[in-house]
Amino acid sequence: MSENKDLPVAEQAASVEGVKFVYDFTEGNKDLKDLLGGKGANLAEMTNLGLPVPPGFTITTEACKVYLDSGEEPAALRDEVSAHLDALEARMGKKLGQADDPLLVSVRSGAKFSMPGMMDTVLNIGLSDKSVQGLAKQAGDDRFAWDSYRRLIQMFGKTVLGVDGELFEDALEAAKTAKKVTVDTELEAADLKKLVTKFKKIVKTEAGRDFPQSPREQMDLAIHAVFDSWNTDRAKLYRRQERIPHDLGTAVNVCSMVFGNLGPDSGTGVAFTRDPASGHQGVYGDYLQNAQGEDVVAGIRNTVPLADLERIDKKSYDQLMQIMETLENHYKDLCDIEFTIERGVLWMLQTRVGKRTAGAAFRIATQLVDQGLIDEAEALTRVNGAQLAQLMFPRFDEDAKVSQVGRGIAASPGAAVGKAVFDSYTAVKWSRSGEKVILIRRETNPDDLDGMIAAEGILTSRGGKTSHAAVVARGMGKTCVCGAEELEVDTKRRRMTVPGGHVVEEGDVVSIDGSSGKVYLGEVPVVPSPVVEYFEGRMHPGADDADELVEAVHRMMAFADRKRRLRVRANADNAEDALRARRFGAQGIGLCRTEHMFLGDRRELVERLILADTQAEREESLKELLPLQKQDFVQLFESMDGLPVTVRLLDPPLHEFLPDITELSVRVALAESRQEPHENELRLLQAVHRLHEQNPMLGLRGVRLGLVIPGLFTMQVRAIAEAAAERKAAKGDPRAEIMIPLVGTVQELEIVREEADKVIAEVEAASGAQLKLSIGTMIELPRAALTAGQIAEAAQFFSFGTNDLTQTVWGFSRDDVEASFFTAYLEKGIFGVSPFETIDKDGVGSLVKLAAKAGRETRPDLKLGVCGEHGGDPESVHFFHEVGLDYVSCSPFRIPVARLEAGRAAVQSQGSDHR
Predict the structure, then answer these.
(1) What is the pLDDT of residues 380-405, one digit of tens each?
(2) Residue 120: which of 16, 228, 27, 197 has the closest Cα?
(3) Top enzyme class of this protein (predicted)?
(4) Alpha carbon distance 746, 858 (integer Å)
(5) Over the chain, what is the mean pLDDT?
(6) 802 annotated ligand-binding residue
(7) Contact status, residue 65 vs residue 185, Cβ threshold 8 Å
(8) Catalytic residue set
(9) Max Cα distance, the chain (Å)
(10) What is the share, in percent, of the chain residues with pLDDT greater than 70?
């Protein structure tokens, strides 16, 4: 196709001989997910394994991309689909939608990455006013045939023709009310026949056309609808949430129908080879008799546990257990399986590597290592830093006095507290106002996605572990309790009635425990996670009372530490934070912000220093500050003995240390009006006016402050050197590194370094200690990155300050833009994620890469690190590994995440090297 790159996309596809847009299930395999999507590739893989898969074919993601780019399907696609349909009909011995014994098919989406419920599916294609009679005769069951037909019109009307789904639901509820029944399985053939007539009228009124009677037209329109569903708002929102690229497109799977709604000896279900909530081995899943697949995942009817299938249909149960073992051993991972039983015959409709909770991910990874199915390196690819961060969140205090009002299925763990809301719009609105909310629904559907993202947790009264709410919540790491049947949810009146008659109104606080399924009134207090207790050293792996999850986390962290090349340091400004960071596995301090040491009681000293009119006043202030600074560093070096400590010299915007200009002006004005003495305040106000800056973040700060206020940086360097000498005398091992902030040109660094070297030499001479202090700079300005080769002549290390570098590259003020327009940028897809959260590889990342390369060309032994917030971001850690940095530095609580991701980055880079 590259030879025809100047042609329109549709013509490119049509012009290339041999381009294949449709694959039979017998032609693909699990490694073709880019082309066949996850569902199609895995259907092909199961077919190759000889498992019972209904025959069918897959339309590729390439066809979808042509369609989305050009607005038309590839010219060759219709003929290819016709050829595969002919082959399918010949194999099945029946024609699509024929009157006497119709072949029916499903049309289902299937992107490379699982997007549960986000894109479209249509079942029972091929049914019409004529073929429904033939289906009834062939099956010997009128009710089944009319039930299947009403399902087709309902799904097709909503998915393909854009009819409001509530209209069909209301008509179905009205039919049940008229019949005085509560579930749709109690409706008889005559009731369903009337419902079909009603549904067709809804389509005619709302879509402005009749429901299509041509089977091929139904199939073609459904295929286009699946293509179009790639770009629905909910699909785009889900991709942004999960960071799935927007240019992949979806495949379409056309599969011969098998029917779970043929009576009590038929049914449909979802199974997991291990519990996706806990990771424990066993029989997990849901089964629903006399139903089609969408009934299970939609949570419309409450299912029975998969284990009950052994009693209902022992033969199918035993066969399913054998297939599940085959698939887990083949995929070497937790498998999520959809199946249908048609009159005692088992059919496999889908398998995929299942979504799981964070705890399950760690347990399963270590279990598979113990079983010999994967090695340690592969185990690291099965977990990630975001999951580890989830495990560090607090959980409910089991000893607290609580008011439990219900219990459902523990679908996705966590402790969530918030105000009850009953629709997605309110959840989003309240969340944006700063409220924590719990989204409560009878069952969720894909249109609830934005509310699910906004909520702290999700609670439903219907559905099981495989319902839409459960699957999506697990994928997002969101707390979820499903199927709390004793809770009566009334979304129209915005209330929930709990056993005993108590009513929870919208706005009332509720708490849900996704680990136990318990639902509480009011706010339940939380306690630290056992994983945090492990990192803090209060829980020991191998001890009798050790948490099973802690054991799994401990092992995975050991794997990561053995594999990683990147070292992990902490951002810490005092001895307490440094000790905590060391317990969490920090290998030093990558950023000690000395300005934090000057707040509180010392603020007045710094204020006097900045406003000093004479050299004598300035020296007096510095003399008072020196011993205080020295003691800070003594404590810091002691807590990090034997590990490097990078101390950044003072880098505040001046306004942080000066009185507020408005408050000071008011004080002066009041004093003048009262004719009170105010000489000091007036002098101070004049100085503040003199030093006032419109944009202090780009003003007199960092190295500029050190050059303008004589003695400031030399005082700090002396304090560092004397503290190091004191620790040496106490047989300690201080390893201080002095970092000069906000350097934009090598001349700034040379001046400061010359003064620093002189002070260090004086301290060495006085103490008799060899201090070996290194001096480097923070690269946080674009000019510093672009001239890094020159700056490296005077610097022994670089630390990338990616917070400020992001601000200066983008021209963003972090304090302002995140609240003002970042939400709009994220919603419009301009950002996939905030550049302050994950490093902008194309812009900021390019400067980091350029500066690292240029710096090491000048000084091959140049030490390179990063100390911005990106140092603890999982995706950014991988980037820093790739560009060859020596370490990342982050806040103490993110150190375990950075350690784990550094190990994963090493494993993945080794894997790509081997490829």
Answers:
(1) 999 999 899 888 887 888 788 888 99
(2) 228
(3) transferase
(4) 13
(5) 88
(6) yes
(7) no
(8) 468, 867
(9) 106
(10) 92
3-state secondary structure of 499: coil
Between residues 255 and 696, which one has the greater pLDDT? 255
DSSP H helical ranges for 600-697: 603-611, 615-639, 661-673, 679-691
DSSP 93: T
- What is the distance between the alpha carbons of residues 250 and 226, in angstroms, rounded to a whole number? 8
Please say if the pLDDT value at position 612 is more than 80.
Answer: no
Query: Per the annotation, does 338 bind a ligand?
Result: no
How many angstroms from the chain centroid is the CA of residue 304? Answer: 31
Q: Which amino acid is at 168?
A: F
Q: How big is the CA angle at 566 (ends 561 and 569), to the nearest 5 degrees? A: 90
Neighbours of 704 (CB within 10 A): 17
CA–CA separation, 28 and 48 (whole Å): 8
Q: How far apart are CA 531 and CA 514, in angstroms?
A: 17
Identify the CA nearest to 151 among candidates 117, 220, 104: 104
pLDDT at res. 539: 82
Top pLDDT among 446 and 258 is at 258
Question: Given this model, what pLDDT does residue 593 score?
Answer: 87
* Measured CA angle at 493 (ends 492, 495), to 5 deg: 115
- DSSP character string of 21-60: -EEETTT--TT-HHHHHHHHHHHHHHHHTT-----EEEE-
Task: Give the tokens for residue 903.
Answer: 């190990």
Cα separation, 654 vs 743, in Å, equals 17
Q: Is 593 flagged in the annotation as binding?
A: yes
How far from chain centre, in Å, is Cα 464? 23
Q: How confident is the model at residue 296 (pLDDT cuts 50, 70, 90)?
A: low
**Phi, psi (deg, nearest 5) at residue 296:** -75, -55
Place of tokens 């009157």: 99
Q: Between the ranges 69-73, 123-127, 292-296, where is the mean pLDDT highest?
A: 123-127
Pick the range with the lowest mean pLDDT from 356-360, 557-561, 716-720: 356-360
Q: In terms of C-beta density within 10 A (0-12 exposed, 13-18 middle, 19 or more buried), how is residue 832 classed?
A: middle
Q: Which residue type sits at 519?
A: V
Determine how many CB atoms are found less than 10 A away from the CB of residue 575: 17
Q: Are the C-beta atoms of 297 and 444 separated by less than 8 Å? A: no
210 belongs to an annotated ligand binding site: no
Convert 64-80 to b/e letters by CB count within 10 Å (16 or more is b). bbbbbeeeebbebbeeb
Residue 801 labelled as part of a binding site = yes
Q: Which range has the worst mean pLDDT, 93-102, 501-510, 816-825?
A: 816-825
- At residue 875's C-alpha, the angle toward residues 872 and 880, to 5°, is 75
Q: Which of 449, 453, 460, 463 is nearest to 422 (CA)?
A: 460
Rounded Cα distance between 278 and 294, Å, is 25
Contacts by 763-768, CB closer than 8 A, 24 or more apart = 763/718, 763/721, 763/722, 763/725, 764/721, 764/725, 766/725, 767/722, 767/725, 767/728, 767/729
Q: How many residues does the chain have?
A: 915
Dihedral over alpha carbons 813, 817, 822, 823 (to 10 degrees): 160
Cα radius of gyration (the chain): 33
Residue type for 785, please?
A
Nearest to 262 by CA among 313, 217, 227: 313
Q: How far apart are CA 693 and CA 434, in angstroms?
A: 32
DSSP secondary structure, 310-342, as one string = HHH-HHHHHHHHHHHHHHHHHHTS-EEEEEEEE
Of 290, 318, 315, residue with least CA distance to 304: 290
Q: What letter represents residue 714's amino acid?
A: T
Helical (H) or strand (E) element with 556: helix 548-563
* Backbone φ, ψ for residue 411 (5° rounding): -95, -35
Report the C-alpha gap between 310 and 589 in whole angstroms. 58
- Residue 209 CB: number of other CB atoms within 10 A? 9
Nearest to 712 by CA among 607, 618, 601: 618
The count of other CB atoms within 10 Å of the CB of residue 208 is 8
Whether this model's pTM surpasses 0.70: yes
Question: Whole-angstrom Cα distance, residue 506 to residue 493?
Answer: 9
- At residue 798, the 3 state secondary structure works out as strand
